[in-house]
């Protein structure tokens, strides 16, 4: 047991120590990314406001992430609702195929989508990135929303229908408010994944670079690395904030349904 704890600590250190270095060098008063530090400065953060290409990449990523979050969550609601409420032939196999992108290497998904889009004659653009991001984000949304829908008592909806409400009305007025925290968490997770995703965006973005693709391009210029570190610090902080809000929304939903909290999203 002690060996497992040591392994866990070493794994977490290997995973997160590089992220800790981001803010250290982002506030370092030198263009050289190395120790010892030259001093404290906020120059690299102020320089971010003077880079038009960065602003265009941020705007592109925001548009893609917002659309991806909305579409992925809508598809997740439909799939989770169907899996929790109905029985249909090959249900397990169909849900397994829908969740398959969770375990497939992203490089394989990206190359496959690139081949399909080129064969269909689609021009690489923000639309193709959205389609790719929806494919990988939808399983995460389903995983989050499955717990919300499966914990509901079907008698609630049946009682609403018995009292004269339509099926859609019962879903809108009874079921939807109960799973709303899960929907919020799903949208925030999908938004965060889309904003941070690189591989699919790299293959499918065309001339409309997303923020991760723009950052990758800047790594070729050593003089720009401090600004990249500053931007990376902002992205990490924003991701942590969004994930924290999503987790709080998930826990609120668990308490609202009267269930026992058994862990995080997945």
UniProtKB/TrEMBL annotation:
Keywords: Cell membrane, Membrane, Transmembrane, Transmembrane helix, Transport. Residues 58-246 form the ABC transmembrane type-1 domain. GO terms for biological process: transmembrane transport. The chain crosses the membrane at residues 7-27, 33-52, 64-82, 94-117, 124-149, 169-191, 198-216, 228-249. GO terms for cellular component: plasma membrane. It is a multi-pass membrane protein. It is found in: Cell membrane. Signal peptide: none annotated. Pfam families: BPD_transp_1. Gene3D superfamilies: MetI-like. This is Spermidine/putrescine ABC transporter.
């Amino acid at each position: 047991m002690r060996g497992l704890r040591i392994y866990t600590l070493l794994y977490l250190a290997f995973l997160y120590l590089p992220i800790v270095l981001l803010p250290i060098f982002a506030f370092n008063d030198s263009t050289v990314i190395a120790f010892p530090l030259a001093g404290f400065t906020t120059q690299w953060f102020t320089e971010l406001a003077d880079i038009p290409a960065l602003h265009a990449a941020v705007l592109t990523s925001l548009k893609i992430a917002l659309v991806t979050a909305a579409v992925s969550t809508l598809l997740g609601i439909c799939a989770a609702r169907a899996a929790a409420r109905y029985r249909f032939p090959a249900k397990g196999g169909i849900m397994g195929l829908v969740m398959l992108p969770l375990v497939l290497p992203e490089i394989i998904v990206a190359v496959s989508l690139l081949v399909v889009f080129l064969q269909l004659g689609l021009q690489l653009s923000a639309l193709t990135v959205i389609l790719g991001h929806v494919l990988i984000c939808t399983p995460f949304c389903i995983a989050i929303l499955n717990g919300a829908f499966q914990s509901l008592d079907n008698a609630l909806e049946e009682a609403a229908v018995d009292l004269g409400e339509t099926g859609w009305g019962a879903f809108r007025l009874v079921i939807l408010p109960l799973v709303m925290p899960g929907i919020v968490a799903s949208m925030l997770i999908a938004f965060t994944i889309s904003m941070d995703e690189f591989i699919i965006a790299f293959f499918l973005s065309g001339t409309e670079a997303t923020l991760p693709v723009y950052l990758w391009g800047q790594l070729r210029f050593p003089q720009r690395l401090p600004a990249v570190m500053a931007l990376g610090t902002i992205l990490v902080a924003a991701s942590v904030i969004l994930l924290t809000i999503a987790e709080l929304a998930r826990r609120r939903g668990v308490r609202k349904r009267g269930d026992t909290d058994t862990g995080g999203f997945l």
